[in-house]
Amino acid sequence: MEKGQQCENAKEAYREQLTKTNNSQTLHYSTNFPQLNDALQKGEEERVAKYGVLLSQYSEVHSKVIPIINKCLEGMKTSSQIVNGPKDSQTLIDANKTGLSPPGDIPFEEYGKPATQQPGTPVDKKRTKKVKTKPNKGTKNVGDGNDFQSLNPGEKTRICKKKIEEYSAESATLWSERQGLEKMMDVYSQNNALGDPESIKGQLEVNAKALDKSNEELHKYQCYLAALQNSEPPPRQPFYSGQTGGVPPAQAANGVANPPGNIPEPPPPPGSAVMDQDDGEFEDDIRCYVLYDFQGSNDGEITVSAGEELIVLERDIDNTGWTQVLKGDDEGYVPTAYIQLSE
């Protein structure tokens, strides 16, 4: 009896499982699988449709570009037919010619032959003048260390522009540093607990001297470039460091002192020979007072400070803009506009 009951139970379980399997199979083949195929078919149809649109757009764009390409090819063909080698060579020569003239013939000099002089003819010493050549200030060792005068105008312009770019970047860096120090000093002044504002003054003075020096070099090369381009030089930057020199006695008597903004520009570097009036001898007992600070940065120049008393060795009789002076044991040239002769 028990075995028969177990057999019936097994049949019933098998029947239920078979029914579930058949239902799942029917659902798969009649519903799920057709829906999947429909989705795949729809996606493929959309892909084909989009591909057709892309082909249409590609053909349309290509049809617009082809005339442009053909026009470019025609222009290239036309240009290739008018190539002129000699003309191109001449254009290159004109663009790179220096404008320097070739040197002349070297004259023959017979050394060792004494100069002849008619007997009894006195030597006129008054008509014999010594010729002294002022150093060509601002033209040697400029840029790459070469003689600036021997370079062609293009090389001079390139060197000046390079130096202007370098000193402009240096001045900008120093100016940013100065602004930061000034802000820090303001913060310290408002709150002494954060720091001592007096400690910033020394850094500001060092920064001011470096900034003034950089601006002076920048202005110097800007003047060189302006002279090469026959244009007006830019104005000089203001001085940030303190004025160490006093007021010259000639001006102190009248209580007048020119502000730093009215300091005249140094003249362009002289390059011609200058004759003295007194047989090449320096003028004695002529003194002058320095009106403005001047930093001698080139060969032949001398650094002076406002208020100093100097001895004039050579006056600016030819209006070159430079006067030779003696400061202690050192001699050199300073701008004529920077000094005032003693009465």
Low-pLDDT stretches are 114-146, 243-262, 270-283
Spatial order of strands in the largest sheet: 6-5-4-3-7
Could you state the order of secondary-structure elements as H and E? HHEHHHEEEEEE
Number of helices: 5
Instruction: Report strand %.
Output: 5-15%
According to DSSP, the number of beta strands is 7
- End-to-end separation: 154 Å
The percentage helix is 40-55%
What Rg, in angstroms, do the CA atoms define?
45 Å
Indicate the structural class. alpha+beta
Largest sheet properties: 5 strands, antiparallel
Mean pLDDT: 76
Overall geometry comes to elongated
Provide structural commentary:
The chain has 343 residues and is α+β, with helices and mostly antiparallel strands. Among the domains are: 80 residues; 77 residues; 56 residues, SH3 Domains (SH3 type barrels), CATH 2.30.30. It is 48% helix and 9% strand. It is built from five helices and seven strands, in the order H-H-E-H-H-H-E-E-E-E-E-E. The strands form two sheets. It has a five-stranded antiparallel beta sheet with strand order 6-5-4-3-7, with no helix packed on it. Strands 1-2 form a two-stranded antiparallel sheet. Strand 5 and strand 6 form a beta hairpin. The chain is elongated and about 155 Å long. About 20% of the residues have low confidence.
